[in-house]
Amino acid sequence: MDSGVWIVVIAALTAVNVACVIVVVRALRIPSGRKVTPHYHLDVSTTDILKEEELDKLRNEALDKLQVSSSDTLNHFDEKLMSFQQKMYSELEDQFSKTSAIIFDNQQKITAEAAATIARSVSQSAKVFEENAQRMNSQLESTIAAEKKRRLELFESNMASVITQYMSEVFDGNEDMAAQAPVVINWLGKHKEAIKKDIL
Amino acid sequence: MIIPSSIQSIDHLTTTVWEVEQMAAELRKGSNVQSSLSISTQELLDVNGVHELDSAVANTLVKQLTAIKSSAKQVHISTGSMATFEWRNRITKWLRSEIDEHLFCSFSSNISQGGGVVLRTPKNAYSLVYKDKILTNIPTLARLLPS
User: Fold this and answer.
1) Which chain A residue has the Cα nearest residue B143?
2) So what's the pLDDT on residue A170?
3) For burial by CB atoms within 10 Å, which of A38, A187, B116, B140 has the most?
4) Which residues from B are below 8 Å from A185, CB to CB?
5) DSSP states of B17-65 as a string?
6) Residues in Cβ contact with A102 at an 8 Å cutoff, skipping those fewer than 6 apart
7) Domain boundaries along the sequence of chain B
8) Is B108 helix (H, G, I), strand (E, B) or coil?
9) Among A1-5, A189-193, B1-5, where is mean pLDDT lowest?
C-alpha cells in the first residue's frame, strides 16, 4: 500500500481517538474547577467506527486530495523557487556590481596611493641623491683645495731642492751652452763695469 | 803682447810659458822644435807675428809671458753643464776685448748648480743661474701655477 494512504488512515484514527478523549475529559471535569487527570483505556477498533466502504471512500478521497495538494505544493514550490532564484540572481548581480565597484574603487585608491608613494619615494631618493652628490662634491672640492694647499706648502718649503733637482733632471748635464752664449754675453755686458772694478 | 783666446786660464798660460821655455832651451841646443808646439802656443806665435823662432825670440817671449803671468787677473766661470772649447773661446774673447786684454778665465762645470752661469771675481760673484732666478721670483711662479 502507498504511504499516502497510510497517512490518511492513521490521521483519521488519530482524529477519532482525540475526539473520544476530549469527550471523556469534559465529562469528568469536577465542579470546583480543579483539573484531575484520570487514566483511561479505550479499546476501539477502526472497523467498529467506520465501515469498510466508508474507509475505502475516505481513503480514495484522501488520496485524491493528497495528489492535488502535492501538485499544488509542487507548483507553488516551483514558483517560489523560480522567484527566489530570480531574486537571488538579481541580488547576486547587485551584490556583484556593488562589490566590483568597491573593489574597483579600492584598486583605484590603492593604485593612486602606490603611485603617490612611488612618486614620493622617487622624489625623496632624488633629493637624497642630489644632497649626497652636493655633499660629495663639496668634500671633493675641499679635499682638492687642502691637497693643493699641502702640495704648495711642501713645494715652497722644498723649493730650492725641488728646483735644483728639476734643473738637474731637465738639463742632465746637456745644457745647450752655445745657444746661451748671446744671453751670457749680454748678461756680462750688464756687469761689465762692476767686473772691471773687481779686477783692476 | 796678444794672448790668444785659446789660452784661457793662468794655468794654461803657465803651461805655455813652460812650453816656450822648453822651446828656447831646445833652440839653444840647435834643434828645430817648432813642429812639435801645441796648437795654442803656435797660435800665440801667429797672433804676435813670430814667424821665425830662434833662441833670442824665445827668451823674449818667455820674459813677456812671465811678466803677464805675474800681473795676470783671473775670473772664474762655472757653468751648469760642460762648456765646449768654442764657447769658452767666445767668452774669453769678450772678456779680453771688453774688460782687460790680459784677463784670464778659468772654467768649470757644476751640474747641481741648476743651469746657467756663475762668474766669480776676486771680490764678487755674479749669478745667471736659472734656479736662482726662479727662487728669487717665487711670487711670479705662484701666480703662474694653475689655481
Assistant:
1) A152
2) 67
3) B116
4) 90-91, 94
5) HHHHHHHHHHHHTT---GGG--HHHHHHHHHTT--S--HHHHHHHHHHH
6) none
7) 10-70, 73-138
8) strand
9) A1-5
- Is residue B6 within 8 Å of B89, Cβ to Cβ? yes
pLDDT band, very low/low/confident/very high, at A25 (cuts 50, 70, 90): low
Is it the case that residue B55 has pLDDT exceeding 90?
no
Residue A112 has pLDDT above 70, yes or no: yes
Q: Residue A191: which of B84, B126, B131 has the nearest Cβ? A: B126
> Each residue of B73-104: pLDDT tens digit?
999 999 988 888 999 999 999 999 999 999 99
What is the spatial distance between Cα B126 and Cα A85, in angstroms, rounded to a whole number? 124
Give B137→chain A minimum CA distance, Å. 11
Mapping DSSP to helix (H, G, I), strand (E, B) and coil, where does residue A67 land? helix
For the stretch B88-94, contacts whose Cβ atoms lie closer than 8 Å and that sit 24 or more positions apart, written own/partner, are B88/B8, B89/B5, B89/B6, B89/B8, B90/A181, B90/A185, B90/B5, B91/A181, B91/A184, B91/A185, B91/A188, B92/B5, B92/B8, B93/B5, B94/A185, B94/A188
Which of B94, B106, B136 should be substituted to probe chain A, the one whose Cβ sees the most A Cβ atoms within 10 Å?
B94
A30 — contact with chain B (CB < 8 Å)?
no
Q: Give the type of residue at A74.
A: L
Interface ipTM: 0.84
Residue with cell 642630489: A130
* Binary contact (B82, A199; C-beta < 8 A): no
Query: In a 3-state reduction of DSSP, which class is residue B115?
Result: coil
Give the whole-angstrom CA distance, residue A126 versus residue A137: 16
